[in-house]
Amino acid sequence: MYLKTQGLVLRVTEYRDSDAMLTVLTREQGLMSFKARGVRSRRSQLKSACQLLSFSEFTVQERQGYYTVSEAVCLEMFQPMRNDIELLALCSYFAQAAELLSQQDVNDGEVLSLTLNSIYALCKLKRPQMLVKAAFELRMMVIAGFSPMLDGCAVCGSETPDRFDVAGGMAVCAGCSAPGSLRLPLSPASLAAMQHITTCEAKRLFSFNLLPEARKELSDIAETYFLTQLERGFYTLDFYKSLRLMSDHNPENPQ
What we know:
Elements (H helix, E strand, L loop, with lengths): L1 E14 L3 E8 L3 E7 L18 E9 L2 E11 L2 H4 L2 H16 L8 H15 L5 H15 L19 E3 L4 E3 L10 E3 L2 H12 L12 H19 L4 H12 L9
Parallel strand pairs: 3-5
Antiparallel strand pairs: 1-2, 1-4, 2-3, 4-5, 6-7, 6-8
Helix pairs in contact: 2-3, 2-4, 2-7, 3-4, 4-6, 5-6
C-alpha cells in the first residue's frame, strides 16, 4: 500500500551504509518514521527532500507497519537557515521540542503549523530570534495544555500583576505568591505580549514587538516556563545558547 503525505523532517538517523531513518511530523498522522534507502549517497534523488528541517511531500510504501520512501519532493528548504549556524541551531531546538510534544497516529496540525510558521518567521520574515523563540515556547505550552493564567493576579485579582509564578503558570503580584516560589519580573509590556501570544489567531502570532529590556524579560519567562513544565532540558537549546553567548557583542546579530 502506498501513502502520500506532507511533513517536516524533525530528525535524521544514519542507518546502514547509505540509508537513513527519518522522523517526520505530518499533519494527519502525527509523527511517522520512514526508511530512506540510499539517501546518503551522492546520486540519491531523495537527498534534498530528506534533509533535516526540510518540508517535503513523501510517497511511502507501507509493509507490515513499516514505511519506506518511494518518492519525495522538497517543498521548502528554508535556505537562510542552512547558511546561518545560529538559525539552524534554533530551528533544531524547535524540531526537538515538536518531536517531544507530538504523538504517532494523532492529528498534530497545530504543532506542525506552529513549527513551520516559527521557522518561516525567522527565515523569511526576519523576525528577531528572541521574540520568535518566546512565542514558540509559550504557544507550544498552550497546545500542550499548559496555558498560563494571565488575566490578572491569580491570587488577588489585580489587573496589574508584576511577577510570573513559574511553577503555578500564573501572573501574580509580588506580595501574593507563596514564599520560595520562583517568580520572574513581569512588566506590563511583557504581560501584554504573553496575552497576545497565548490567545491570538495563529496567523497573527508574530505580529508584535518589544523594546530590548521587555524582550529579554519575555524570553526569560517563556524559556523558564517551558523547561519547568516539561521537566527537562534540550541539548539543541544548550548549543544555541552557547552560540548566542559567543555573538552577544556583535550588534548586527538579531536579538
